[in-house]
Amino acid sequence: MITNSELNVLRKQFPTGYKVKLVEMDDPFAPPIGTTGVIRYVDDIGTIHVKWENGSGLGVVYGKDIIERC
């Protein structure tokens, strides 16, 4: 679960249009590590929705998956 204050920080840290790189994602459908993408939005449960360069739209799960800003 994510608190409102954590959600606000996350949205400031990863604003719409910001470029990110995938560091770690535990999902069989995950893009390859190192794939870059652009933030679409952060939803109310903290999932960071990314348009990945390989065409994937798989979301980044808060507290589980890892991305870094480019």
What does this structure look like?
The structure is a single chain. The chain is 14% helix and 31% strand. The chain contains 1 helix and 4 strands; from the N terminus they run αββββ. It has one helix at 4-13, and strands at residues 19-24, 36-42, 48-52, 66-69. β2 (36-42) and β3 (48-52) form a beta hairpin. The longest helix is centred in the first third of the chain and has 10 residues, at 4-13.
Secondary-structure topology with pairs:
Elements: H1 4-13, E1 19-24, E2 36-42, E3 48-52, E4 66-69
Antiparallel strand pairs: 1-2, 1-4, 2-3
Give a quick rundown of the structure.
The chain is of the alpha+beta class and 70 residues long.
Question: What is the strand content?
Answer: 25-35%
- Mean pLDDT value: 97
- Please give the oligomerization state of what you see: single chain
Overall 3D form: globular
Q: Element order, helices and strands?
A: HEEEE
Number of helices: 1
Structural class: alpha+beta
Strand order of the largest sheet: 3-2-1-4
Feature tags:
4 strands; 70 residues; 1 helix; alpha+beta; 4-stranded antiparallel β-sheet
